[in-house]
């Protein structure tokens, strides 16, 4: 019996502490010489203080082709970035909230065309701003209620902030239920479906729907329904104390130099680890690593399944990653439209970094970014903690990665 227990413990230890896969660009079907140029370029950009440090990952045809860390996780402490460094991925969280909603859709508990008030009665009787002149605001009833799909595509008319909440995204001092109750009492900025406006409040509302319809806290739903099945062992809403040492510090700029960001940023001082937080933040709360995110993106590329675990149906993945915003000006980058919690490349100007039409992606406030290119069967992850502008470094990585694809894109 003792021998069996010892053997089981040994097996468990080997699974928990197994070494990460070794990247092999050639086996992945990419130009190995081109891929070898990425790490030195990332290091040069970190050395020039364009960013504090990066972790970059590329997967092609389901094979890990590249995983490198460059620069510093903590400049002042001389702590090098590591490939298993943990990052605040901020708005990349929204993709997971969207997937949680689609799981409930597949269970028949939510419909994408459902009025939000069906699930959250506090949203009944919303108003929309008809006009605002010289400080006088006129309200009217909207032509129709906001729907779950409106929230997922950022076309609901919900704004970014609400009086009475203060700096909830900094202090995280209210519960999700309390925040959504306050959001529900604010007028819409425009008629639902008529414009695109990025809305953190809208994504928070989706997270609350997940709680109400699943009967479990938002963070518990993600843990049990997404992270555990995918083997995402370093992804959390609340980072455990034993993993604090792996968190990359957040940097800003002062007089052209990188300095640690203070407490007045999203989530507060990064190295205080959101102590005492009440807010689960479905719009921005997740911590994760490059390898964990690769699992998530590969599942999406595989149309909802990974390693024998099915999280979503192919039809759910397809509906999430199609453009739902039509001709509306949408997204943060040129040439994109918006799907359901994903930005989607739809025009040639969106391909200037080498992305194919149909590539779906999302970034985060601190410069993090990930994408799935179904035509190239390519997954990419770019992680950084920079509260200024990491896009030049990010785009260099994307361009260099796409230049390594040998075979023509699938049509």
TrEMBL record:
Span of the signal peptide: 1-18
Gene3D superfamilies: DD-peptidase/beta-lactamase superfamily
Keyword Amino-acid biosynthesis: no
Ranges of residues in domain Beta-lactamase-related: 43-401
Pfam hit, one: Beta-lactamase
InterPro entries: Beta-lactam-related, Beta-lactam/transpept-like, Diverse_Enzym_Activities
Keyword entries, A-Z: Signal
Name of the protein in its database record: Beta-lactamase family protein
């Amino acid at each position: 019996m003792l021998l069996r227990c010892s053997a089981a413990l040994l097996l468990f230890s080997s699974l928990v502490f197994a070494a990460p896969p070794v990247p092999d660009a050639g086996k992945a079907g990419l130009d190995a010489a081109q891929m070898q140029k990425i790490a030195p370029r990332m290091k040069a950009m970190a050395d020039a203080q364009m960013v504090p440090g990066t972790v970059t990952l590329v997967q092609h045809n389901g094979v890990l082709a590249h995983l490198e860390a460059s620069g510093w996780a903590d400049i002042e402490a001389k702590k090098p970035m590591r490939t298993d460094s943990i990052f605040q991925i901020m708005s990349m969280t929204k993709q997971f909230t969207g997937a949680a909603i689609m799981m409930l859709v597949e269970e028949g508990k939510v419909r994408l065309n459902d009025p939000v008030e069906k699930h959250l009665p506090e949203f009944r009787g919303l108003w929309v701003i008809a006009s605002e002149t010289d400080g006088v605001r006129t309200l009217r009833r909207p032509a129709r209620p906001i729907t779950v799909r409106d929230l997922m595509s950022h076309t609901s008319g919900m704004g970014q902030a609400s009086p009475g909440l203060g700096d909830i995204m900094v202090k995280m001092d209210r519960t999700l239920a309390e925040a959504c109750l306050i959001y529900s009492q604010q007028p819409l900025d425009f008629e639902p479906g008529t414009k695109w406006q990025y809305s953190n409040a809208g994504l928070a509302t989706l997270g609350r729907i997940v709680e109400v319809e699943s009967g479990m806290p938002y963070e518990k739903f993600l843990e049990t329904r997404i992270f555990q099945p995918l083997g995402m062992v370093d992804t959390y809403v609340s980072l455990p104390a034993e993993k604090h040492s792996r968190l990359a510090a957040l940097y800003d700029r002062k007089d052209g130099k990188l300095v640690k960001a203070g407490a007045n940023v999203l989530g507060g001082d990064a190295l205080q680890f959101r102590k005492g937080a009440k807010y689960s933040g479905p719009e921005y709360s997740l911590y994760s690593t490059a390898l964990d995110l690769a699992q998530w993106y590969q599942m999406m590329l595989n149309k909802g399944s990974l390693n024998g675990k099915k999280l979503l149906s192919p039809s759910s993945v397809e509906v999430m990653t199609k453009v739902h915003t039509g001709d509306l000006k949408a997204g943060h980058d040129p040439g994109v439209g918006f799907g359901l919690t994903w930005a989607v490349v739809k025009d040639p100007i969106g391909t200037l970094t080498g992305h194919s039409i149909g590539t779906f992606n999302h970034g985060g406030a601190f410069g993090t970014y990930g994408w799935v290119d179904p035509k190239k069967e390519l997954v990419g992850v770019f992680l950084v903690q920079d509260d200024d502008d990491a896009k030049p470094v990010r785009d260099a990585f994307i361009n260099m990665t796409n230049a390594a694809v040998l075979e023509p894109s699938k049509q």
